[in-house]
Specification:
This protein is α/β, with parallel strands linked by helices and 253 residues long. The protein has one domain: TIM Barrel (Alpha-Beta Barrel). The protein contains 13 helices and 8 strands. The protein has an 8-stranded parallel barrel with strand order 1-2-3-4-5-6-7-8, surrounded by 7 helices. Helix 2 links the parallel strand 1 and strand 2. Helix 2 runs parallel beside helix 3, helix 4 runs parallel beside helix 5 and helix 10 packs across helix 11. The radius of gyration is 18 Å and the shape is globular. The N and C termini lie far apart (54 Å).
Length: 253
Amino acid sequence: MKKNLALAKQRAGQVTAGPLLVVGSPDVAETVAHMGFDWLFLDWQHGEWTESTLNNALGRFLAVDCAPLVRVKGLETSTINRVLDMGAMGVIVPMIETAEQARVAASVVRYPPLGARSGGGNRLSLIDSAGAAAYFDHANDEMMLVVMVESEAAIANVGEIMRVPGVDVVLIGPGDLMLDVKARGHDEARHERLVVRVAEAAAETGSVAGYVCSTPDVARRRIEQGFRFICYQSDLGTMMGGLRQARDESHRW
C-alpha cells in the first residue's frame, strides 16, 4: 500500500505544508507533485477542476510521495467516495459545523468496520501493488480526513469536532470565517480570538489544527500558535505574482 507520508508526519507531531491548486491542469499538478511538498490541495470546491481533469491529475501521483488531497464541493458522501476511488489520499470537506457532520465525513472516508466507504475503483490496484483487495485491508490507515471550520458556529463546536474518531485535521477557512464574523457585526479582533480558540482546542485534544497562509510571516505566526497543517500559497497566486514581476521588469527596458 502506498504510504501517506504526510499523515505519518502529522501523527509524529510534525508540521506539514502544501499549496492550493485551483487551475484545473493535470500537467501543473504533476509538475508540482514532484517538487517535494508534503501534500497538494486540489480545490474542487472553488477551483476549475472537473471530474475528468481531477481523475487525470490523481493518476499522476502514483509515482510520487506527495499526497493528493481533494477539497470536495461539500459534505457529499458519493463525491467523497468517488475521489478516493480515483486515487486521492485524503479529502478536505468544507463548511463542517457539528460533530455529527464530521462523523458522516469520517464514515465515508473509511471502510468497515471503521466506516461505511463503498469498495470499488479501477485505480486502487495501482495504489496497493498487492491488488484492490489488499487496498481494502490497508487504506483506512492511510487516508487523511481534513474538515474545515469556517463559521463562529463551527468554532463553538470545535472541541467536539476534533474528538470525532477519524478526523485527522481541523482546518480554518479564514476567508469564510471573516465573512461570517463581519456578517454578525464583529471585527478582525473577534476573528483572531476564534483562530486562537481552534489552536487551544487542538492542544487540549491532541488534534492537528490547520490554517491557510498567504505569507511566510503568517505561516510562522500560526505555527508558533500550534497550527501544524499549513496551506501555503496557490498555483494561480504564485503564477500571477511572478508574471506581475516580469511585467514590471519588462516595462523598465
